[in-house]
């Protein structure tokens, strides 16, 4: 029955594509005539004709999207009745087969050619019409025809293929809503958007990640210089994560009222924290050192950065901004250790010591002070009144724009009968935890308890995986200076170079996975494979013989780190798809939950390093790797149990 309906849809789609192509071909002949004999009025009429074709194309895209949704609902109903989910397998296997009719429905083969021809001709006519106007009426730059943006928005909504930009954007767990469908909604979003303010948020993200990792190569030496054991570096590094557990919550709540004030507070606290960190050497106080790192953790404004991108960046560029957020984090992670390797001086100014241990604190203090000045001068607080008016109710009530009426699309989808039956069946099955009413799905979680109740087994497993990979990465990075110094006699510069190289692998690995591998395999397949590879890397890291070679450590570290990076991208991609839509907004959102899970993992890992230090540095490596091994094995088992629900 479903296959028959799909064939009906495809035949109708091909028929409409042919008609649109024929109309574009006829208009192309008229355009060729006008190229030889220009006429402003005729060009304007031809543009309107192209725009009519564009509006019909949007109707067709709306039709395909509506019926693709109907197909998914049919398959979903089958999944529920037979208690086995094979929808994702069915769609991916059929849509990738060269002779499958789902190629037309899910990958809109052929529509791209129509979109390209229409967009190109409209842009050409826009420029051609401008060239015949008076030079006094000529605009500085030709305006893009709004119908092109509408077509691109419809195509983007329909497109399901994964690319590098989308893969990076999913790392950030920032809500990606549909693009606004009317000019009025776009105007409201543009009023809230300010490019320099977005850049300030991305720079905040970059500086914070630099601040996090710049002390890693020297934390053990700094601890020893203050009379503590080298393994106390775990407490020094982890104290920042401890404070971040609490700061993420109040910054997320604060961003409901303002973005500027939290960023100012963050900059001031981070400035003071780095000053305390740098002054700990001259005061000979480990307490001052740890207080400085705690202050740095209390200044973590990553929740504000995420929230600003989600709420104030227009939907049409939100994915790019999300990718920028992830890229800024990755670059900061690589630059932190690299800068530490360069700061190899030692001198005094007025009894204040500047050395490889204190210079990271002074450098970051200056950076945050300069950032604070730039922030106060350039940041523009979004209009909260405009944001409040931009509600789903107000959006639905806007009927004054003709384009909004056009986007209602075709009124009679070919799956109408089947879809109505599905809707009737859905009314009888309201207890299904995976389905929410349209109204409830827009209400954010208002408390930790309500957020926890929205966590399905699939979401809990993904959060466990995120905890596991962050734990494994923190163990690897935080104890690297102690391990390499003990076994290989590496100096600070060698450790810094090693950590910088690890950090620089983030973007290339994401590029390969996001552009190629994710198009060849399902996310859940990549999830399982990357966990197994991570487990292999952890096992290979253990010291089981009397000697421990550099090759074994470096290779196992690369395998562990790269596997964790691949796993993080796939994990957050799946988390964004299985998580309730109610967790995409509000204080207790999905980004906050993942941040808390990752931060808690870092705290536990750093405490494990310090606790294991009491058993001796010789036992540190194996003792800290053992929990990673157990948690990784447990996450693989949980993934296997929830495998059929991961899509």
From TrEMBL:
CDD domains: SPX-MFS_plant. It is a multi-pass membrane protein. It comes from the Eukaryota. Keywords: Membrane, Transmembrane, Transmembrane helix. This is SPX domain-containing protein. Residues 1-92 form the SPX domain. GO terms for cellular component: membrane. Belongs to the major facilitator superfamily. PROSITE patterns: SPX. InterPro entries: MFS, MFS_Domain-Containing_Protein, MFS_trans_sf, SPX_dom, SPXM_SPX_plant. One of its GO terms (molecular function) is transmembrane transporter activity. Residues 415-444 are annotated as: Disordered. It comes from Aegilops tauschii subsp. strangulata (Goatgrass). Residues 424-438 have a biased composition (Acidic residues). Its main location: membrane. The chain crosses the membrane at residues 195-216, 228-251, 263-280, 286-304, 325-347, 359-377, 495-514, 526-544, 620-643. It is found in: Membrane. Signal peptide: none annotated.
């Amino acid at each position: 029955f479903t296959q028959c309906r799909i064939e009906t849809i495809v035949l109708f789609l091909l028929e409409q594509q042919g008609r649109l192509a024929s109309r574009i071909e006829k208009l192309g002949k008229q355009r060729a005539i006008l190229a030889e004999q220009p006429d402003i009025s005729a060009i304007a009429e031809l543009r309107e004709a192209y725009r009519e074709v564009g509006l019909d194309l949007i109707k067709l895209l709306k039709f395909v999207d509506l019926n693709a949704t109907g197909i998914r609902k049919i398959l979903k109903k089958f999944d529920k009745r037979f208690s086995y989910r094979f929808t994702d397998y069915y769609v991916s296997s059929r849509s990738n087969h060269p002779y499958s009719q789902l190629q037309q429905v899910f990958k809109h083969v052929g529509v791209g050619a129509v979109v390209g021809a229409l967009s190109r001709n409209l842009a050409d006519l826009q420029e051609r019409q401008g060239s015949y106007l008076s030079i006094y009426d000529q605009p500085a730059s030709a305006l893009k025809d709004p119908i092109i943006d509408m077509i691109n928005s419809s195509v983007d909504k329909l497109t399901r293929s994964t690319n590098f930009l989308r893969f990076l954007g999913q790392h950030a767990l920032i809500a990606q809503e549909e693009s606004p469908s009317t000019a009025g909604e776009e105007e409201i979003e543009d009023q809230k958007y300010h490019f320099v303010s977005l850049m300030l948020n991305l720079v905040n993200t970059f500086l914070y990640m630099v601040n996090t990792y710049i002390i890693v190569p020297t934390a053990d030496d700094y601890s020893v210089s203050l009379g503590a054991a080298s393994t106390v570096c775990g407490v020094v590094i982890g104290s920042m994560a401890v404070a971040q557990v609490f700061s993420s919550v109040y910054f997320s709540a604060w961003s409901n009222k303002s973005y500027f004030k939290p960023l100012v507070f963050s900059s001031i606290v981070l400035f003071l924290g780095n000053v305390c960190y740098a002054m700990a050497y001259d005061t000979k106080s480990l307490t001052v050192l740890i207080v400085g790192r705690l202050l740095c953790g209390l200044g973590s404004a990553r929740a504000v950065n995420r929230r600003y991108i989600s709420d104030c960046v227009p939907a049409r560029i939100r994915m790019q901004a999300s990718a920028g957020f992830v890229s800024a984090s990755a670059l900061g992670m690589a630059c932190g250790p690299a800068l530490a390797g360069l700061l190899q001086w030692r001198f005094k100014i007025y009894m204040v010591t500047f050395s490889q241990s204190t210079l990271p604190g002074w450098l970051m203090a200056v950076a945050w002070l300069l950032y604070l000045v730039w922030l106060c001068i350039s940041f523009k607080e979004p209009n909260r009144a405009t944001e409040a008016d931009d509600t789903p109710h107000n959006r639905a009530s806007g009927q004054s724009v003709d384009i909004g009426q056009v986007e209602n699309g075709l009124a009679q989808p070919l799956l109408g009968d089947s879809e109505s039956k599905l809707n009737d069946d859905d009314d009888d099955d309201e207890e299904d935890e995976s389905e929410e009413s349209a109204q409830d799905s827009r209400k954010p979680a208002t408390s930790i308890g309500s957020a926890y109740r929205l966590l399905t087994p699939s979401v809990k497993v993904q959060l466990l995986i995120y905890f596991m990979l962050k734990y494994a990465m923190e163990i690897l990075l935080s104890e690297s200076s102690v391990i390499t110094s003990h076994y290989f006699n590496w100096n600070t510069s060698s450790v810094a170079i090693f950590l910088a190289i690890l950090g620089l692998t983030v973007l290339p690995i994401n590029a390969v996975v996001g552009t190629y591998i994710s198009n060849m395999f399902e996310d859940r397949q990549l999830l399982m494979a990357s966990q197994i590879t991570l487990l292999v890397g952890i096992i290979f890291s253990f010291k089981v013989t009397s000697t421990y070679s550099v090759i074994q450590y470096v290779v196992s570290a690369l395998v562990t780190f790269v596997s964790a990076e691949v796993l993080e991208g796939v994990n957050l991609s799946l988390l964004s798809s299985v998580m309730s839509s109610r967790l995409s907004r509000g204080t207790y959102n999905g980004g906050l939950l993942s941040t808390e899970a990752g931060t808690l993992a870092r705290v536990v890992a750093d405490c494990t390093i310090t606790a294991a230090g009491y058993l001796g540095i010789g036992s540190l490596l194996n003792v800290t790797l053992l929990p990673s091994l157990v948690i990784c094995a447990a996450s693989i088992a949980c993934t296997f149990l929830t495998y059929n629900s991961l899509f």
